[in-house]
Amino acid sequence: MHDMAVPSNAGLVVLKNSSGITVEGLNLRGNKNGLLLINTNDSSISGNALHDNLFGIVLHRSFNNVISGNRVTNNPNSGIELWGSHNNKILSNTIAENGFGVTFSDSESNLISNNQFTDNNNGLVLSISSENNIESNSFQGNSLALSLTSSHSNNLNNNLILDNTIGLLFS
Prior knowledge:
This protein is mainly beta and about 170 residues long. The chain has strands at about 15, 20-25, 25-30, 35-40, 45, 50, 55-60, 65-70, 70-75, 80-85, 90, 95, 100-105, 110-115, 115-120, 120-125, 135, 140, 145-150, 155, 160, 165-170.
């Protein structure tokens, strides 16, 4: 699929080998993955509610996507997960009460900005992920706010880390 919008009555969204897709205003709940992108590029995910899925939003080998203004809550595994995905923007999302708020694995050059991470077991976890910009986010009430494992050259600027059990963990 290319240059299309997902229908407003979709209950589950899986995009593979797609580009220029708009996913907007959906309520995606009760699935393994609320939204799964595989090899999908230059797409927009905005204004959606993703809750009570095992995983809220998953990007696998997907590039240049914008995830913004979503409410990602109560997903027992991950709210947002990136695997081998680069140059994506995660902006102004509410990420609350997930097992992991946002996880990156082998993902580089992404921007994570102006998000609210609240009451997750783990707020933001980077593993083998480098050169990401993490700025102006709020981490509050998480068991672990921010963890970087085998990750280097990430920029952390102007983040609020308040009332978490553990603030920062580098390993």
